[in-house]
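Encoded backbone
================
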Amino acid sequence: MSNPIKAMSIEDRLAKISKSLDKRHKQEKQLKIAGITAITLAIGFLVVLMTNIFSNGYTALLQSEVRVNLEIPMDKLLGEDGQIDPQKSQAFNWSGLVKKSFRKGFPAVKGMSDQRMLNDLVSDNAGYELRLAIENDPTLINQTAFWVKTSDDLDMLLKGRINTALPEKLRRIKDNQLEWIKQLEQQEDLRKVFNSTFFTNADSREPESAGILGAVVGSAMALMVTIIIALPLAVMAAIYLEYFAPPGRLTDFIEVNINNLAAVPSIVFGLLGLAIFLGFFNMPRSAPLVGGMVLALMTLPTIIIATRASIRAVPTSIRDAALGVGASRMQAALDHVLPLAAPGILTGTIIGIAQALGETAPLIMIGMVAFIVDVPTSITDPATALPVQIFIWSDSAERAFYERSSLAIMVLLIFLISMNLLAVLLRKRFEKRW
Protein backbone atom coordinates (compact mmCIF):
# COMPACT_ATOMS: atom_id res chain seq x y z
CA MET A 1 0.00 0.00 0.00
CA SER A 2 1.52 3.30 -1.04
CA ASN A 3 2.10 6.17 1.42
CA PRO A 4 -0.29 9.06 0.59
CA ILE A 5 2.29 11.65 1.69
CA LYS A 6 4.93 10.23 -0.64
CA ALA A 7 2.34 10.03 -3.40
CA MET A 8 1.74 13.78 -3.15
CA SER A 9 3.51 15.97 -5.62
CA ILE A 10 5.95 18.66 -4.57
CA GLU A 11 3.43 21.35 -5.51
CA ASP A 12 0.76 19.77 -3.30
CA ARG A 13 3.18 19.52 -0.40
CA LEU A 14 4.20 23.14 -0.73
CA ALA A 15 0.56 24.21 -0.94
CA LYS A 16 -0.29 22.25 2.20
CA ILE A 17 2.70 23.69 4.09
CA SER A 18 1.78 27.20 2.93
CA LYS A 19 -1.79 26.74 4.05
CA SER A 20 -0.60 25.51 7.47
CA LEU A 21 1.76 28.47 7.81
CA ASP A 22 -0.98 30.93 6.85
CA LYS A 23 -3.24 29.45 9.49
CA ARG A 24 -0.51 29.68 12.11
CA HIS A 25 0.33 33.26 11.17
CA LYS A 26 -3.36 34.16 11.30
CA GLN A 27 -3.67 32.69 14.81
CA GLU A 28 -0.54 34.55 15.93
CA LYS A 29 -1.95 37.78 14.52
CA GLN A 30 -5.27 37.22 16.28
CA LEU A 31 -3.45 36.53 19.55
CA LYS A 32 -1.38 39.68 19.10
CA ILE A 33 -4.51 41.76 18.41
CA ALA A 34 -6.24 40.26 21.46
CA GLY A 35 -3.23 41.11 23.64
CA ILE A 36 -3.03 44.68 22.35
CA THR A 37 -6.78 45.09 22.84
CA ALA A 38 -6.57 43.83 26.42
CA ILE A 39 -3.71 46.18 27.25
CA THR A 40 -5.50 49.10 25.58
CA LEU A 41 -8.68 48.41 27.53
CA ALA A 42 -6.73 48.15 30.79
CA ILE A 43 -4.93 51.44 30.12
CA GLY A 44 -8.23 53.04 29.08
CA PHE A 45 -9.98 51.98 32.29
CA LEU A 46 -6.99 53.21 34.29
CA VAL A 47 -7.08 56.58 32.54
CA VAL A 48 -10.83 56.90 33.16
CA LEU A 49 -10.36 55.97 36.82
CA MET A 50 -7.47 58.39 37.38
CA THR A 51 -9.27 61.16 35.48
CA ASN A 52 -12.38 60.70 37.58
CA ILE A 53 -10.41 60.73 40.84
CA PHE A 54 -8.34 63.75 39.83
CA SER A 55 -11.29 65.77 38.50
CA ASN A 56 -13.20 65.20 41.74
CA GLY A 57 -10.27 65.64 44.11
CA TYR A 58 -8.00 68.43 42.91
CA THR A 59 -10.46 71.15 43.96
CA ALA A 60 -10.10 70.00 47.58
CA LEU A 61 -6.64 71.57 47.53
CA LEU A 62 -8.39 74.93 47.77
CA GLN A 63 -10.63 76.18 50.56
CA SER A 64 -12.99 79.15 50.36
CA GLU A 65 -12.80 81.85 53.03
CA VAL A 66 -14.92 84.89 53.87
CA ARG A 67 -13.72 88.09 55.51
CA VAL A 68 -15.45 89.02 58.76
CA ASN A 69 -14.94 92.33 60.54
CA LEU A 70 -15.17 91.88 64.28
CA GLU A 71 -13.97 93.39 67.52
CA ILE A 72 -12.65 90.98 70.12
CA PRO A 73 -13.74 91.90 73.67
CA MET A 74 -10.36 91.78 75.37
CA ASP A 75 -11.86 92.42 78.82
CA LYS A 76 -13.53 89.00 78.61
CA LEU A 77 -10.37 87.17 77.55
CA LEU A 78 -7.39 88.74 79.32
CA GLY A 79 -6.26 87.70 82.78
CA GLU A 80 -4.74 89.81 85.50
CA ASP A 81 -1.30 89.49 83.89
CA GLY A 82 -2.56 91.03 80.66
CA GLN A 83 -2.31 87.74 78.77
CA ILE A 84 -5.07 85.59 77.32
CA ASP A 85 -6.58 83.42 80.04
CA PRO A 86 -7.11 79.90 78.59
CA GLN A 87 -10.15 79.28 80.81
CA LYS A 88 -11.81 82.55 79.82
CA SER A 89 -10.99 81.88 76.18
CA GLN A 90 -12.59 78.43 76.26
CA ALA A 91 -15.69 79.75 78.01
CA PHE A 92 -16.14 82.63 75.57
CA ASN A 93 -18.71 82.20 72.76
CA TRP A 94 -16.40 82.56 69.75
CA SER A 95 -18.90 81.08 67.34
CA GLY A 96 -21.53 83.57 68.39
CA LEU A 97 -19.06 86.45 67.97
CA VAL A 98 -18.17 85.37 64.42
CA LYS A 99 -21.76 84.91 63.28
CA LYS A 100 -22.99 88.10 64.93
CA SER A 101 -20.17 90.09 63.33
CA PHE A 102 -20.86 88.45 59.97
CA ARG A 103 -24.52 89.43 60.14
CA LYS A 104 -23.56 93.08 60.68
CA GLY A 105 -22.46 93.18 57.07
CA PHE A 106 -26.09 92.55 56.05
CA PRO A 107 -28.19 95.04 58.03
CA ALA A 108 -31.24 94.39 55.83
CA VAL A 109 -31.48 90.79 57.02
CA LYS A 110 -33.90 90.87 59.98
CA GLY A 111 -35.97 87.69 60.17
CA MET A 112 -34.80 84.75 62.26
CA SER A 113 -35.10 82.39 59.31
CA ASP A 114 -33.06 84.67 57.05
CA GLN A 115 -30.44 85.21 59.75
CA ARG A 116 -30.13 81.45 60.18
CA MET A 117 -29.65 81.01 56.44
CA LEU A 118 -27.07 83.80 56.46
CA ASN A 119 -25.19 82.07 59.28
CA ASP A 120 -25.16 78.89 57.16
CA LEU A 121 -22.68 80.57 54.80
CA VAL A 122 -19.99 80.49 57.51
CA SER A 123 -18.40 77.32 58.82
CA ASP A 124 -19.73 76.06 62.15
CA ASN A 125 -16.11 75.61 63.25
CA ALA A 126 -15.11 79.19 62.38
CA GLY A 127 -15.29 80.35 66.02
CA TYR A 128 -13.29 77.38 67.29
CA GLU A 129 -10.58 77.86 64.69
CA LEU A 130 -10.47 81.60 65.44
CA ARG A 131 -9.93 80.84 69.13
CA LEU A 132 -7.06 78.46 68.36
CA ALA A 133 -5.44 81.00 66.03
CA ILE A 134 -5.55 83.76 68.65
CA GLU A 135 -4.32 81.47 71.42
CA ASN A 136 -1.37 80.43 69.23
CA ASP A 137 -0.64 84.01 68.18
CA PRO A 138 -1.95 86.54 70.78
CA THR A 139 -0.92 89.47 68.56
CA LEU A 140 -3.95 88.69 66.38
CA ILE A 141 -6.24 89.94 69.14
CA ASN A 142 -5.69 93.50 67.94
CA GLN A 143 -6.92 92.74 64.42
CA THR A 144 -10.38 93.76 63.27
CA ALA A 145 -10.64 91.73 60.05
CA PHE A 146 -10.29 87.95 59.93
CA TRP A 147 -10.58 85.43 57.12
CA VAL A 148 -12.63 82.43 58.28
CA LYS A 149 -13.71 79.30 56.44
CA THR A 150 -16.99 79.30 54.58
CA SER A 151 -19.51 76.50 54.92
CA ASP A 152 -19.08 73.45 52.71
CA ASP A 153 -22.15 74.44 50.66
CA LEU A 154 -20.71 77.86 49.81
CA ASP A 155 -17.34 76.25 49.14
CA MET A 156 -18.93 73.81 46.69
CA LEU A 157 -20.79 76.67 44.98
CA LEU A 158 -17.62 78.72 44.47
CA LYS A 159 -15.91 75.63 43.03
CA GLY A 160 -18.71 75.07 40.53
CA ARG A 161 -20.01 71.92 42.22
CA ILE A 162 -23.56 73.27 42.67
CA ASN A 163 -25.74 73.94 39.63
CA THR A 164 -27.53 77.23 40.23
CA ALA A 165 -29.74 76.62 37.19
CA LEU A 166 -31.68 73.99 39.10
CA PRO A 167 -34.92 74.93 40.87
CA GLU A 168 -34.42 76.27 44.39
CA LYS A 169 -35.94 73.18 45.99
CA LEU A 170 -33.35 70.93 44.34
CA ARG A 171 -30.21 72.73 45.55
CA ARG A 172 -28.71 73.40 48.96
CA ILE A 173 -28.00 77.08 48.24
CA LYS A 174 -31.21 79.13 48.19
CA ASP A 175 -31.99 82.20 46.08
CA ASN A 176 -31.59 84.73 48.89
CA GLN A 177 -28.25 83.15 49.79
CA LEU A 178 -27.14 83.60 46.19
CA GLU A 179 -27.89 87.33 46.49
CA TRP A 180 -25.81 87.58 49.66
CA ILE A 181 -22.97 85.69 48.00
CA LYS A 182 -23.03 88.12 45.06
CA GLN A 183 -22.76 90.97 47.55
CA LEU A 184 -19.74 89.33 49.19
CA GLU A 185 -18.10 88.83 45.79
CA GLN A 186 -18.67 92.47 44.85
CA GLN A 187 -17.07 93.57 48.13
CA GLU A 188 -14.17 91.15 47.49
CA ASP A 189 -14.87 89.44 50.80
CA LEU A 190 -14.50 85.93 49.34
CA ARG A 191 -11.30 84.18 48.38
CA LYS A 192 -9.79 80.74 47.82
CA VAL A 193 -6.59 79.69 49.57
CA PHE A 194 -4.54 76.53 49.79
CA ASN A 195 -6.32 74.01 52.01
CA SER A 196 -3.52 73.32 54.50
CA THR A 197 -6.12 72.07 56.98
CA PHE A 198 -6.54 68.93 54.88
CA PHE A 199 -2.95 67.95 55.66
CA THR A 200 -2.69 69.24 59.25
CA ASN A 201 -6.02 68.25 60.85
CA ALA A 202 -7.64 64.98 61.81
CA ASP A 203 -11.22 64.09 60.95
CA SER A 204 -14.14 66.44 61.62
CA ARG A 205 -17.91 66.49 61.27
CA GLU A 206 -17.54 69.59 59.12
CA PRO A 207 -15.95 68.91 55.70
CA GLU A 208 -14.14 72.25 55.60
CA SER A 209 -12.27 71.35 58.81
CA ALA A 210 -11.59 67.67 58.05
CA GLY A 211 -8.06 66.44 57.36
CA ILE A 212 -6.04 63.28 56.88
CA LEU A 213 -3.24 63.80 59.39
CA GLY A 214 -4.80 61.53 62.01
CA ALA A 215 -5.39 58.80 59.43
CA VAL A 216 -1.86 59.10 58.02
CA VAL A 217 -0.31 58.86 61.49
CA GLY A 218 -2.56 55.90 62.32
CA SER A 219 -1.52 54.12 59.11
CA ALA A 220 2.16 54.83 59.79
CA MET A 221 1.92 53.42 63.32
CA ALA A 222 0.07 50.31 62.14
CA LEU A 223 2.64 49.71 59.37
CA MET A 224 5.48 50.16 61.85
CA VAL A 225 3.99 47.43 64.03
CA THR A 226 3.49 45.29 60.93
CA ILE A 227 7.13 45.56 59.88
CA ILE A 228 8.46 44.89 63.39
CA ILE A 229 6.37 41.72 63.68
CA ALA A 230 6.19 40.36 60.13
CA LEU A 231 9.72 40.87 58.81
CA PRO A 232 11.73 38.95 61.47
CA LEU A 233 9.17 36.14 61.65
CA ALA A 234 9.02 35.81 57.87
CA VAL A 235 12.79 35.72 57.46
CA MET A 236 13.25 33.16 60.25
CA ALA A 237 10.44 31.00 58.88
CA ALA A 238 11.90 31.12 55.37
CA ILE A 239 15.40 30.17 56.58
CA TYR A 240 13.99 27.30 58.61
CA LEU A 241 11.93 25.94 55.72
CA GLU A 242 14.81 26.23 53.27
CA TYR A 243 17.71 24.90 55.34
CA PHE A 244 16.55 23.22 58.54
CA ALA A 245 13.06 21.75 58.07
CA PRO A 246 13.28 17.97 57.63
CA PRO A 247 11.47 16.72 54.53
CA GLY A 248 8.20 15.05 55.38
CA ARG A 249 4.47 15.48 55.63
CA LEU A 250 4.64 18.12 58.35
CA THR A 251 6.94 20.36 56.29
CA ASP A 252 4.80 19.85 53.20
CA PHE A 253 1.70 20.71 55.24
CA ILE A 254 3.32 23.95 56.46
CA GLU A 255 4.42 24.96 52.95
CA VAL A 256 1.00 24.28 51.43
CA ASN A 257 -0.75 26.31 54.12
CA ILE A 258 1.66 29.24 53.73
CA ASN A 259 0.82 29.35 50.03
CA ASN A 260 -2.89 29.07 50.80
CA LEU A 261 -2.78 31.82 53.42
CA ALA A 262 -1.36 34.22 50.84
CA ALA A 263 -4.65 33.87 48.91
CA VAL A 264 -7.05 34.11 51.87
CA PRO A 265 -9.36 37.19 51.72
CA SER A 266 -8.16 39.95 54.00
CA ILE A 267 -11.45 40.14 55.88
CA VAL A 268 -10.74 36.66 57.28
CA PHE A 269 -7.67 38.05 59.02
CA GLY A 270 -9.87 40.84 60.38
CA LEU A 271 -12.24 38.25 61.84
CA LEU A 272 -9.25 36.46 63.34
CA GLY A 273 -8.02 39.68 64.94
CA LEU A 274 -11.51 40.44 66.24
CA ALA A 275 -11.83 37.00 67.84
CA ILE A 276 -8.28 36.61 69.19
CA PHE A 277 -6.79 40.03 69.88
CA LEU A 278 -9.99 41.82 70.95
CA GLY A 279 -12.20 38.99 72.13
CA PHE A 280 -9.66 36.78 73.89
CA PHE A 281 -6.78 39.07 74.87
CA ASN A 282 -8.97 42.17 75.41
CA MET A 283 -6.53 44.44 73.60
CA PRO A 284 -7.54 48.10 72.94
CA ARG A 285 -10.09 48.49 70.21
CA SER A 286 -9.38 50.71 67.20
CA ALA A 287 -5.68 50.91 68.10
CA PRO A 288 -2.74 50.86 65.63
CA LEU A 289 -1.19 48.09 67.74
CA VAL A 290 -4.03 45.68 66.95
CA GLY A 291 -4.28 46.92 63.37
CA GLY A 292 -0.57 46.34 62.85
CA MET A 293 -0.79 42.83 64.29
CA VAL A 294 -3.68 41.94 61.97
CA LEU A 295 -1.85 43.36 58.96
CA ALA A 296 1.28 41.46 60.02
CA LEU A 297 -0.64 38.18 59.92
CA MET A 298 -1.94 39.09 56.48
CA THR A 299 1.45 40.04 54.98
CA LEU A 300 3.43 37.26 56.68
CA PRO A 301 2.79 34.63 53.94
CA THR A 302 3.67 37.13 51.19
CA ILE A 303 7.01 38.02 52.79
CA ILE A 304 7.81 34.35 53.50
CA ILE A 305 7.24 33.40 49.87
CA ALA A 306 9.36 36.34 48.63
CA THR A 307 12.12 35.54 51.12
CA ARG A 308 12.25 31.86 50.12
CA ALA A 309 12.43 32.82 46.45
CA SER A 310 15.30 35.23 47.21
CA ILE A 311 17.18 32.58 49.19
CA ARG A 312 16.78 30.03 46.40
CA ALA A 313 18.14 32.57 43.91
CA VAL A 314 21.49 32.58 45.75
CA PRO A 315 23.81 29.93 44.21
CA THR A 316 24.23 26.83 46.39
CA SER A 317 28.00 27.06 45.83
CA ILE A 318 28.17 30.00 48.24
CA ARG A 319 26.55 28.00 51.02
CA ASP A 320 28.66 24.95 50.20
CA ALA A 321 31.83 27.05 50.29
CA ALA A 322 30.91 28.42 53.71
CA LEU A 323 30.26 24.92 55.02
CA GLY A 324 33.52 23.76 53.48
CA VAL A 325 35.60 26.23 55.50
CA GLY A 326 34.00 25.14 58.77
CA ALA A 327 30.95 27.38 59.14
CA SER A 328 27.85 25.88 60.74
CA ARG A 329 24.58 25.73 58.83
CA MET A 330 23.28 28.68 60.82
CA GLN A 331 26.41 30.72 60.13
CA ALA A 332 26.25 29.88 56.43
CA ALA A 333 22.61 30.94 56.26
CA LEU A 334 22.91 34.16 58.30
CA ASP A 335 26.39 35.36 57.34
CA HIS A 336 26.63 34.33 53.69
CA VAL A 337 23.28 33.55 52.10
CA LEU A 338 21.02 36.05 53.85
CA PRO A 339 23.07 39.19 52.98
CA LEU A 340 23.04 38.20 49.31
CA ALA A 341 19.28 37.55 49.43
CA ALA A 342 18.58 40.83 51.26
CA PRO A 343 17.62 42.89 48.15
CA GLY A 344 14.94 40.39 47.18
CA ILE A 345 13.73 40.14 50.77
CA LEU A 346 13.52 43.92 51.03
CA THR A 347 11.63 44.14 47.75
CA GLY A 348 9.12 41.51 48.86
CA THR A 349 8.69 43.26 52.20
CA ILE A 350 8.00 46.62 50.56
CA ILE A 351 5.42 45.07 48.24
CA GLY A 352 3.74 43.32 51.18
CA ILE A 353 3.67 46.54 53.20
CA ALA A 354 2.26 48.44 50.22
CA GLN A 355 -0.51 45.85 50.02
CA ALA A 356 -1.18 46.25 53.74
CA LEU A 357 -1.29 50.04 53.37
CA GLY A 358 -4.30 49.80 51.07
CA GLU A 359 -6.29 47.30 53.15
CA THR A 360 -9.60 48.37 54.65
CA ALA A 361 -11.68 45.29 55.49
CA PRO A 362 -9.48 43.84 58.30
CA LEU A 363 -9.16 47.26 59.96
CA ILE A 364 -12.92 47.79 59.87
CA MET A 365 -13.41 44.48 61.64
CA ILE A 366 -11.24 45.54 64.58
CA GLY A 367 -12.96 48.90 64.99
CA MET A 368 -10.56 51.30 63.22
CA VAL A 369 -13.60 52.73 61.46
CA ALA A 370 -14.33 54.93 64.50
CA PHE A 371 -14.68 58.71 64.24
CA ILE A 372 -11.36 60.05 65.59
CA VAL A 373 -10.85 63.81 65.92
CA ASP A 374 -7.40 63.71 67.56
CA VAL A 375 -4.08 62.70 66.08
CA PRO A 376 -2.89 59.51 67.85
CA THR A 377 0.30 59.82 69.87
CA SER A 378 0.95 56.14 70.63
CA ILE A 379 0.15 52.73 69.17
CA THR A 380 -2.51 52.14 71.83
CA ASP A 381 -4.47 55.35 71.20
CA PRO A 382 -7.71 55.16 69.20
CA ALA A 383 -6.92 55.78 65.55
CA THR A 384 -8.06 55.16 62.03
CA ALA A 385 -6.17 54.45 58.80
CA LEU A 386 -6.11 56.31 55.52
CA PRO A 387 -8.09 53.70 53.51
CA VAL A 388 -10.69 53.55 56.28
CA GLN A 389 -10.87 57.36 56.34
CA ILE A 390 -11.57 57.31 52.62
CA PHE A 391 -14.30 54.73 53.20
CA ILE A 392 -15.92 56.90 55.90
CA TRP A 393 -15.85 60.07 53.79
CA SER A 394 -17.12 58.37 50.62
CA ASP A 395 -20.11 57.06 52.59
CA SER A 396 -21.06 60.58 53.75
CA ALA A 397 -23.95 62.46 52.18
CA GLU A 398 -22.00 65.73 52.12
CA ARG A 399 -20.67 66.53 48.63
CA ALA A 400 -17.59 68.16 50.13
CA PHE A 401 -16.60 64.90 51.84
CA TYR A 402 -16.71 63.15 48.47
CA GLU A 403 -14.33 65.77 47.12
CA ARG A 404 -11.95 65.22 50.03
CA SER A 405 -12.16 61.44 49.73
CA SER A 406 -10.99 61.75 46.11
CA LEU A 407 -8.02 63.86 47.20
CA ALA A 408 -7.25 61.32 49.95
CA ILE A 409 -7.28 58.57 47.30
CA MET A 410 -4.74 60.60 45.33
CA VAL A 411 -2.53 60.83 48.42
CA LEU A 412 -2.88 57.07 49.02
CA LEU A 413 -2.01 56.31 45.39
CA ILE A 414 1.10 58.49 45.66
CA PHE A 415 2.21 56.47 48.70
CA LEU A 416 1.52 53.15 46.96
CA ILE A 417 3.26 54.16 43.73
CA SER A 418 6.23 55.51 45.69
CA MET A 419 6.60 52.27 47.65
CA ASN A 420 6.39 50.12 44.53
CA LEU A 421 8.84 52.40 42.73
CA LEU A 422 11.19 52.14 45.71
CA ALA A 423 10.97 48.35 45.51
CA VAL A 424 11.88 48.41 41.81
CA LEU A 425 14.79 50.80 42.36
CA LEU A 426 16.18 48.75 45.24
CA ARG A 427 15.95 45.57 43.19
CA LYS A 428 17.76 47.22 40.29
CA ARG A 429 20.35 48.77 42.58
CA PHE A 430 21.31 45.72 44.65
CA GLU A 431 20.33 42.84 42.40
CA LYS A 432 23.16 40.50 41.49
CA ARG A 433 23.16 38.18 38.51
CA TRP A 434 24.75 34.80 38.95
